[in-house]
Design brief:
By secondary structure, the chain is an alpha+beta fold. The chain has one domain: Gcn5-related N-acetyltransferase (GNAT) (Aminopeptidase, 3-Layer(aba) Sandwich), CATH 3.40.630.30. The chain is 24% helix and 29% strand. The chain is built from three helices and six strands; from the N terminus they run βααβββαββ. A six-stranded antiparallel β-sheet has the order 1-2-3-4-6-5. The protein is globular.
Length: 121
Amino acid sequence: MPVQIRPIRPSDYRPVVSVVDSWWGGRQMAGMLPRLFFEHFTGTSFAAERDGGLAGFLVGFLSQSRPGEAYIHFVGVHPAERGSGLGRRLYEHFFAAVQVATGYDGDGQDRVRFRKDLAGS
């Protein structure tokens, strides 16, 4: 069955934090994902499911202090899904929600700056 990507929901909090440390080889990462991300950024955060199980997620949001800018806070892909293009698909969902421009940190600094024109929204 193909992976389905949908907006993240508050009910995704427990499934994500229950696996994220193991997805990072035991590194303690769950503390970087407070529940508020799953409640307040559902329009720019996404969960990916395969056969009813969590395959990946992306948590991102629009900046309140810098209108027109957005930030990806965390992306996770199940180890069995790595190399499948799922991470790219999650980023593309975010890009479609907020738009993209490169070159944020200058020459030789591979960073991405996300921009969305809110005037027409």
